[in-house]
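Regression report. Comparing outputs from two consecutive submissions.

Submission 1:
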Amino acid sequence: MGYYDLSKEQRIQFADKIKKAVELDLSSNACKNIQKYSVDKDTYIRKNVYLVMGKLYRDDIRQRKNILTSVEVMYKNDDEKIRQTAVYACGEIGKTDFDPISKILGDALSDDHHSVRNAAIGALKQLGEKNPKSTLKFAKKYLHHPDPGIRHGIIHGIELRGRTHPEEILPLLAELQNDKDKKITKMIIHVLGQISYKKGCIEKVIAHLKTWNNQILVEKALGEIIDVHKRYSKFSHQSPEEAREIIRKEF
């Protein structure tokens, strides 16, 4: 039976059980219960673990050292579900304190398992919203990493911040506009589209694109921006026609 097969009351009780099990491990410098729930096939059970760890880190300074030690042990585990949970825990901890989890987050971007790499991207997206200054500082550190997979993950990871503050991530995207890896430029085009359709965003994106030197990429990005306004017409601040007119005036 999965987590959401339980009634609301049963879920509350189960979540409290997980919380107490995590707290027991932390108080006894153990990881047995944490790993037990972190390896569960139900993603929502694993989610309870990393949410508890993040909340405890935020609220109980005395537990922070033990929590960080547990996360380090978890990330060294052979099971990808445990490593994935560790990375998501880093995403929660990083909302309070980024530096202690930056090493694991960086390593996770090149993890052997795709679910762990995706967790790192997901954690970065959350951190970009809650702790943007530290997240963008981290992104700049890995922006020109020799591994294209890491560069790709960084671009994807800062996307969510760009949807509300495109001016903060556009300079980072510009640095990779002439990247030789096609997956990188494809992701840049995708992100440019995604950060263009909220109120006040397309104007910032278009103004910045006018300073770029890769005209082929810019043309593709402009097409993607119009397509995004079509696909997300119910959520876009401008209609596709209005987006096209804004682009026409500037280009």
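Submission 2:
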Amino acid sequence: MTHVVTALVWLAVGAVVGVGIRWGSVWLARREELKPAFRRRDVLGPPVLTALLFGGLGWLVGPHAELLVRSLWVALLVQIIFFDFEHGLILDVVQLPAIVAAILLSPFTTGAGLVNSLITAVGFAVVFVILAAVGSAIFKAEALGFGDVKLAALLGAMLGWPWGGTALILGVLLAGVAGLVLLLFRVRGLRQGLAYGPYLATGALIVLFEISASGAQ
């Protein structure tokens, strides 16, 4: 019963947080001299998705400290997903403070610990820099942006090892499937870039829910 009540309350909290995410993203876009879109998916997407994800976390975790920390990361990942889809950017003003916070809060997210979190963040960043260089050499175009490199570091800091590795693998697989579909339907050419951020963030969301469902920390 406690988990049911927590889920319902947290679903409502998620809807409010989602509205804040949307309007915070609009403010950030204008601050960066970007033009916000006001399509239905852009306006309603963050509140609806955040509410559903918060409600799910409330059901799985219950009224514990981990719920607050993991909900913080859910909100951040939702912002990254919608902002990157809309503008093709992941802002430093969002990611850089989040990396520091993720390292400090890592014991309460997955139990990975500060050292594990820091090493994983640095390792993932290095790997993605190498992948970006190799991809650019092969496709003669930018394969990964530095926003994606910093996002990989953020996921490493947030989840630590081995959970962060699982998130990256899931994200890369999701991006591969999406890229293939876009290519098959001729929506995007072979040398056109793909916004990896939403898929990497989705991989992290899946892992956060897997952790919460298993009761791991």
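Expected: both submissions complete independently.
Actual: both completed, but the second showed a warning that disappeared on reload.
Relevant detail on submission 2: The radius of gyration is 17 Å.
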